[in-house]
Q: What sequence folds into this?
DNA sequence: TGTTTACGCAACCCTCGGGTTGCACGTACC
DNA sequence: GGTACGTGCAACCCGAGGGTTGCGTAAACA
């Protein structure tokens, strides 16, 4: 089975600790602007903007403009998709190993 | 909530497409050596060895020596742990957004 | 014993991306 | 209007790590 295109982005996005912190921070606030998040995470607003761009690209976050500010909220769909993907692989490989084990035992 | 130490390694390990391909390849074979995997993935055996090191460090794979070769198998536990982590976050944030939404609607 | 094969170690290259600073622009508010 | 604040854009720095080549070592087998 081919890894779906989005999995690349999602896992790559989740790979960075700062981005996971950002997701947590946004989740805790419900929604937040890049400037506000700068007080939650020890990096520059610009760095946060870049991270939000990556998260947005991965579909993990979505921003909406209100006047001069942009509020970001977490999108959970891709997250659960990624979780499902992991679980499916784990189950698949578990089953295969079990089969091999039974064969090896001369069943 | 603090991201558990292992999540760092797991997501970082899963971030690389080549490593996910390796996991898939190992899973498909049941178990495999670095040399064998070199024919599944378009990189050098040495690169694969490095990747297997990362996967091993993350607890996603475990190697066992048999004579002069080392066979690697997938370990699914960390995988399911990561899946659980994602699902928990998704559920948590979904609930919070739902609450906020109800409040905003003046409920 | 000689040859083949699988592995381990080390050095090296080079791109990618996380982080920064600096500044320009637009929107809110007085 | 002027001022303050939030964004957006661009250039730059620099370390991490994915990839390579080269070589040495040890096990399997004739």
A:
């Amino acid at each position: 089975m081919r890894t779906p295109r989005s999995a690349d982005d999602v896992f790559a996005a989740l790979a960075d600790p700062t981005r996971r912190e950002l997701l947590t921070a946004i989740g805790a606030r419900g929604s937040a602007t890049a400037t506000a998040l700068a007080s939650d995470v020890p990096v520059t607003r610009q760095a946060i903007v870049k991270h939000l761009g990556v998260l947005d690209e991965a579909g993990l976050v979505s921003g909406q403009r209100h006047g001069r500010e942009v509020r970001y909220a977490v999108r959970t769909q891709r997250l659960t998709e990624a979780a499902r993907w992991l679980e499916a692989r784990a189950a698949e490989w578990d089953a295969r190993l079990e089969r091999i084990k039974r064969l090896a035992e001369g069943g």
